[in-house]
Specification:
This protein is an alpha/beta fold and about 230 residues long. Helix content is about 30%, strand content about 20%. The protein has eight helices and nine strands. The strands form two sheets. It has a six-stranded parallel sheet, with helices on both faces. Strands 5-4-6 form a three-stranded antiparallel sheet. α5 packs parallel to α8. The protein is elongated.
C-alpha cells in the first residue's frame, strides 16, 4: 500500500470555526504572542497563559470536523495515510484519522513543568495549583515559540518515505514544519491544497489546488482513489 503523507495547517481547522493565529481578527489579536506562547510568557504570568489555552480548549471541544478532514479518513481505505499536523486541536482524530502526528502539541493534554515525559489527557481546565505526580505545576502540552519540536524527526522520516505528499491549509511559511517539503523525494507528487497557493519554482511535481480544504480535499481524494483503482 502506498504511503500518503499529509501536512495540515490552520486553514483546515479554520473551516471548522477555529480561528487561525495569523489572520486579521484571529485568535491572537489583542495578545502579544510572546505573552501567551513562550516560556518567558509562562514565567511572567502563568494565570494568563492557562486562561488563554483553557478558552482555546473549550472552543476546540465544540468544533466539528469538516469535509476536508473526512476526505483524509476516506483515503485510509486505499493508502497508508499519516497526517502530520501543525494544529493542536483534535479534529483529525474526531473525523476518524488513525495516524496523526502533532508537531506543535495537543490542546487536550497537559504535562509536567519539571518532566516533559509526564503527559496527561485532560477534559477540563488547567488551574494554578494543578500538579503532576511529582508535585510540579501542570502546563499546556503545547510547543511554544523558542522550544524544541520533539516530533520533528519522526515527521521528517514520514516525509522522506512518502509516495504522495499533500499540503493543506498552510502557507508553508512557518518553520520548521515548512522545511518538511525538502525531505520529500523529487519524484514524489506534492499536492498543495490552499486558496493562496505559493509558488514553488525550486522543485518539480508541485500540483496546486487553489481551493479551501473542505472542497479541495474531497476532489483530490476522489482523484487519488480513481488513480489507485486504475493501478490495481
Amino acid at each position: 500500500m502506498k504511503k500518503l503523507i499529509v501536512l495540515s495547517g490552520s486553514g483546515i481547522s479554520a473551516e471548522s470555526g477555529i480561528p487561525t493565529f495569523r489572520d486579521a481578527g484571529g485568535l491572537w489579536e489583542g495578545f502579544d504572542v510572546m505573552e501567551v506562547a513562550s516560556p518567558e510568557g509562562w514565567h511572567k504570568n502563568r494565570a494568563l497563559v492557562l486562561d488563554f489555552y483553557n478558552q482555546r480548549r473549550k472552543a476546540a471541544r465544540l468544533a466539528q470536523p469538516n469535509a476536508g478532514h473526512q476526505a483524509l479518513v476516506t483515503l485510509e481505505e486505499y493508502y497508508e495515510v499519516t497526517v502530520i499536523t501543525q494544529n493542536v486541536d483534535d479534529l483529525h482524530e474526531k473525523a476518524g484519522s488513525t495516524r496523526v502526528l502533532h508537531l506543535h502539541g495537543e490542546l487536550n493534554k497537559c504535562r509536567s513543568t519539571a518532566d516533559e515525559n509526564l503527559v496527561y489527557p485532560i477534559e477540563g481546565d488547567i488551574h494554578i495549583g494543578d500538579v503532576c505526580e511529582k508535585g510540579f505545576q501542570l502546563r499546556p502540552h503545547i510547543v511554544w515559540f523558542g522550544e524544541m519540536v520533539p516530533m520533528m524527526e519522526a515527521a521528517q522520516q514520514e516525509a522522506a518515505a512518502a509516495d504522495i505528499f499533500i499540503v493543506v491549509g498552510t502557507s508553508l511559511q512557518v518553520y520548521p514544519a515548512a522545511g518538511l517539503l525538502y525531505y520529500v523525494g523529487e519524484q514524489v507528487p506534492v499536492y498543495i491544497v490552499d486558496p493562496h497557493t505559493p509558488e514553488y519554482q525550486h522543485r518539480p511535481n508541485i500540483i496546486p489546488i487553489a481551493e479551501p480544504a473542505s472542497t479541495g480535499l474531497p476532489k483530490l481524494a476522489k482523484q487519488l482513489i480513481s488513480q489507485h483503482t486504475s493501478e490495481k
